[in-house]
């Protein structure tokens, strides 16, 4: 089972903190891969919160293709962070080209676009680059979004962190998600690594998604280009989150109702029973069956954790005002926030979504049996 | 027949018959129960002659041959009296002295079943044990990567939806603006398919309805039953149990006078209206209730004269084009119940099914599509229709489901599959296969008759006389002497047994696949088959 760790901190922290937690939880993953999402960035990116940052891996040929492509679209490089690799490679990690983290200036023609159009435009560019790199595998792109960096690689998380020099001073973030993979074979497509990202929404998961095919079929047929990929059965969790909030315009409290709806007797006793009945029926194909612990971030850097209906996976949230962490095991939490009040740790159960908002002051538990905050 | 008499072309011997009676003289007590019970008078009490040798140790006495007669059971060899293999004789025999046996040789009988130019008609089934559904295995077992669930202890949500489901955004918008949202029923995915009052005996019908009511009211299982084309007794129409019933309308509109007149008196809406356009067992052919079965009660419910055959036309009289037929019928039926009741067509599986589905996707009032495959049963049909017409259900359903996936409407128009589910007894496995291929639920008919009423029909041309009203079990007869053999209470009990055990088996299938929160509709990655071509066709895994 993969191990998950996410944190949200008032002050920017190094991604190595999250990797440390994964290292502590090492018994639970086989160190075969790691994926990291950084948001609400510190360091040099602090000054450029609104411009999109491209994260990915490119070969020399890929970089040339990318530069041509971006210039054609009027995107100029604003800032780039170079990751220098040591000469000696890492055992079990393929030697790749350049790990790219590059911020772009929007073209002038984009200035008149509204928020949704920009979001859609950024996603289209990411998908196009991904598409261009498919044939020769010379361009791998994880995200293209403001204030967001993603790194994914195969190998032991701690070794990868050191190998890529992620402990550098200029790489810091206030919201971090990290996953240590299990069962990753060396031929794995990097796109199958968590976290997954679409238009500012991101999730990572452990466990299998046994309802993957019907969910994938449903999302793929929504005619939304971002609902694609699916090298991993967990990618749908990010897309369902996007679908819930962006497409249906619902709040985070509705997400759990979509992936694990209440049983009828509980719906009957719910304040929003009519709404929930309809939501359950119309989103029937998005019901997950676990066993899954889902951790995700929203556009405003809210962090949350939700469990499958049977709560078959562990998961704990704890911390103190200004610094909270979400971990698939308590030892991960202990490693990063040892001085917290452990009596206030929360292990979300089958009806709960544990949420830490952008103010990072407290853990809110949203229980499915509570009334929804509906935009009605 | 003596050897010097004329032999007609259709003069048959015992060895020509499909079923032969094996009668044991030593055990028979000549009680006469077998001859009394035989539905086709295939056996009769007869006189046999026996030769006795009379010998003596006394050389002076001549050895003599003596003759004596004895009584026994003889099998008739005429076409109309040929044994149908129902084995009622064995069932009633107190001494195990008699049983029909299938003729292992070539059956010459078949060439003579068209006396007076009338081809064979029969009820029942296709008489083929082949089942692609039986070949499908569930291969995606959760084990270490994710734990298998416990069929006995986890909570399971196995209900399905019948009704037009709007796209999520549209539905929420209409909810907010108080617009019309199509009616959707939450039902159990195993539905008792259309078997009419008339095709079935009153006791069978009553038993089915009682069983369904018990399942709903006592066990909380929302099982639904279709009436078939033959109307519905007025008492049921005006009762609260109507909500468990899917009223079927077909091309003969039998019984709809009663139904329409009962609408103002209905306490509950019916579950749904099923418009039958086709039947898997005899696609392109209408329903048929032969005159033997049209007694006073049936005639009254159907609004027809007594003692006449009731062939429904192969197509609806009002049909001019698919658009008109489907759209108008669906609209009329929806209107009759104030748009509160789902209305959906049932068609026979065919290579043209996709066209019907595509039409429905553009009709906002179409609630579902039921597709009946070639292995479906019937109360009466020409043998040629049953044996040679039709389309297997698996590939037809799969094509339709994948078409819905392509246009993104897989959750909007539920597909229901019928025809051959459990034909060899594997009902839960067959149903689960179809659900994972894309069905929202399955309809069963023959299985109900076999499991709940002890129908003696098999896939080896046994019995098959449902059309003649002489059903030896009283399941498809309107003759009180026959249907009194069937106790409705026992039928109801068996219906409950059937559904409760099906439920457990279905859980035993979905639990190891890691599914419990919703019915695994379209979960095709769980399926595998050891036939490469079939795997390709169904878009599932090929396993050997």
From TrEMBL, chain A:
Domain Glutamine amidotransferase type-2, chain residue ranges per copy: 2-357
Highest taxon, organism lineage: Bacteria
InterPro entries linked: GATase_2_dom, Ntn_hydrolases_N
Name of the protein: Glutamate synthase (NADPH) GltB1 subunit
Species in which this protein is naturally found: Desulfocicer vacuolatum DSM 3385
TrEMBL record, chain B:
The protein's Enzyme Commission number: 1.4.1.13
Pfam families referenced in this protein's UniProt entry, alphabetically: Fer4_16, Glu_synthase
Domain 4Fe-4S ferredoxin-type: 19-48, 74-103
Keyword field contains Transferase: no
PROSITE patterns in the record: 4FE4S_FER_1, 4FE4S_FER_2
Classification via Gene3D superfamilies: 3.30.70.20, Aldolase class I (3.20.20.70)
Catalytic activity: 2 L-glutamate + NADP(+) = L-glutamine + 2-oxoglutarate + NADPH + H(+)
Binding site for [4Fe-4S] cluster 1: 93
Keywords: 4Fe-4S, Amino-acid biosynthesis, Glutamate biosynthesis, Iron, Iron-sulfur, Metal-binding
Binding site for [4Fe-4S] cluster 2: 83, 86, 89
Alphabetical list of PANTHER family matching this protein: ARCHAEAL-TYPE GLUTAMATE SYNTHASE [NADPH]
Sequence similarity: Belongs to the glutamate synthase family.
Protein name: glutamate synthase (NADPH)
């Amino acid at each position: 089972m993969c191990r998950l760790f996410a944190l949200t901190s008032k002050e920017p922290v190094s991604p190595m903190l999250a990797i440390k937690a994964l290292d502590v939880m090492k018994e639970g993953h086989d160190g075969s891969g790691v994926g990291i999402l950084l948001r609400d960035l510190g360091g040099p990116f602090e000054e450029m919160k609104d411009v999109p940052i491209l994260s990915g891996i490119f070969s020399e040929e890929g970089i040339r293709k990318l530069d041509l492509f971006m210039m054609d679209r009027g995107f100029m490089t604003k800032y780039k962070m170079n990751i220098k690799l040591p000469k000696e490679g890492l055992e079990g990690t393929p030697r790749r080209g350049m790990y790219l983290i590059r911020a772009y200036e929007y073209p002038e023609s984009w200035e008149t676009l509204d928020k949704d159009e920009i979001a859609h435009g950024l996603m289209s560019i990411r998908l196009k680059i991904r598409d261009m790199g498919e044939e020769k595998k010379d361009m791998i792109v994880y995200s293209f979004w403001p204030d967001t960096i993603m790194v994914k690689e195969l190998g032991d998380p701690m070794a990868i962190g050191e190998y890529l020099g992620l402990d550098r001073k200029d790489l810091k973030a206030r919201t971090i998600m990290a996953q240590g993979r299990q069962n990753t074979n060396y031929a794995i497509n990097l796109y199958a690594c968590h976290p997954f990202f679409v238009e500012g929404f991101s999730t990572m998961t452990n466990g299998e998604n046994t309802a993957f095919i019907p969910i994938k079929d449903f999302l793929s047929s929504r005619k939304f280009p971002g609902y694609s990929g699916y090298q991993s059965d967990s990618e749908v969790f990010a897309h369902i989150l996007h679908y819930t909030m962006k497409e249906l315009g619902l709040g985070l409290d509705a997400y759990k109702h979509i992936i694990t709806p209440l049983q009828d007797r509980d719906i009957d006793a719910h304040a929003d029973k009519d709404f929930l009945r309809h939501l359950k029926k119309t989103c029937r194909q998005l019901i997950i069956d676990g066993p899954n612990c889902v951790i995700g971030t929203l556009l405003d850097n809210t962090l949350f954790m939700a469990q499958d209906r049977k709560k078959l996976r562990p998961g704990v949230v704890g911390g103190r005002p200004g610094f909270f962490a979400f971990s698939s095991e308590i030892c991960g939490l202990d490693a990063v926030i040892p001085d917290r009040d452990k009596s206030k740790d929360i292990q979300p159960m089958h009806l709960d979504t544990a949420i830490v908002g952008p103010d990072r002051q407290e853990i809110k538990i949203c229980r499915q049996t509570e009334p929804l905050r509906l935009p009605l | 027949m003596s050897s010097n008499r004329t032999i007609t072309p259709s003069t048959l011997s015992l060895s020509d018959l499909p079923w032969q009676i094996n009668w044991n003289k030593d055990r028979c007590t000549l009680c006469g129960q077998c001859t009394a019970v035989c539905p086709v008078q295939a056996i009769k009490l007869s006189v046999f002659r026996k030769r006795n040798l009379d010998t003596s140790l006394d050389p002076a006495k001549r050895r003599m041959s003596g003759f004596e007669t004895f009584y026994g059971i003889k099998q008739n060899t005429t076409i109309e009296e040929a044994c149908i293999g129902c084995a009622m004789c064995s069932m009633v025999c107190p001494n195990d002295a008699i049983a029909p046996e299938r003729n292992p040789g070539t059956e010459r009988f078949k060439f003579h079943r068209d006396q007076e130019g009338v081809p064979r008609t029969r009820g029942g089934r296709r008489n083929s044990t082949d089942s692609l559904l039986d070949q499908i295995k569930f291969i995606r077992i959760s084990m270490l990567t994710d734990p298998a669930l416990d069929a006995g202890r986890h909570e399971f949500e196995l209900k399905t939806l019948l009704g037009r489901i709007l796209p999520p955004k549209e539905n929420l918008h209409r909810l907010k603006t108080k617009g019309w949202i199509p009616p959707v029923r939450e039902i159990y995915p195993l539905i008792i398919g259309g078997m009419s009052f008339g095709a079935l005996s009153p006791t069978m019908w009553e038993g089915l309805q009682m069983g369904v009511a018990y399942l709903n009211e006592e066990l909380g299982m929302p099982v639904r039953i279709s009436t078939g084309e033959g109307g519905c007794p007025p008492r049921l129409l005006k009762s609260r149990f109507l909500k468990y019933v899917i009223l079927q309308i077909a091309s003969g509109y039998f019984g709809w006078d009663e139904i329409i007149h009962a609408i103002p008196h209905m306490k509950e809406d019916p579950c749904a209206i099923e418009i039958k356009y086709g039947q898997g067992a005899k696609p392109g052919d209408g329903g048929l209730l032969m005159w033997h079965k049209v007694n006073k009660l049936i005639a009254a419910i159907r609004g027809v004269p007594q003692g006449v055959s009731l062939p429904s036309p192969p197509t609806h009289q009002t049909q001019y084009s698919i658009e008109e037929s489907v759209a108008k019928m669906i609209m009329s039926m929806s209107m009759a119940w104030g748009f509160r009741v789902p209305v959906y067509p049932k068609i026979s599986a065919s290579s043209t099914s996709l066209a019907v589905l595509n039409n429905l996707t553009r009709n906002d009032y179409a609630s579902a599509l039921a597709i009946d495959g070639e292995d479906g049963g019937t109360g009466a049909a020409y043998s040629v229709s049953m044996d040679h017409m039709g389309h297997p259900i698996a590939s037809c359903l799969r094509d339709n489901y994948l078409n819905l996936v392509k246009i993104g409407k897989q959750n909007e128009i539920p597909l229901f599959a019928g025809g051959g589910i459990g034909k060899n007894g594997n009902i839960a496995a067959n149903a689960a296969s179809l659900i994972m291929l894309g069905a929202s639920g399955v309809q069963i008919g023959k299985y109900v008759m076999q499991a709940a009423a002890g129908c003696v029909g098999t896939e080896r041309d046994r019995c098959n006389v449902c059309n003649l009203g002489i059903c030896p079990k009283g399941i498809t007869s309107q003759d009180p002497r026959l249907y009194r053999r069937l106790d409705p209470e026992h039928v109801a009990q068996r219906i409950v047994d059937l559904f409760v055990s099906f439920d457990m088996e279905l859980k035993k299938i979905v639990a190891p696949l890691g599914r419990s929160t919703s019915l695994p509709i379209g979960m095709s990655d769980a399926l595998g088959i050891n036939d490469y071509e079939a795997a390709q066709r169904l878009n599932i895994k090929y396993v050997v």
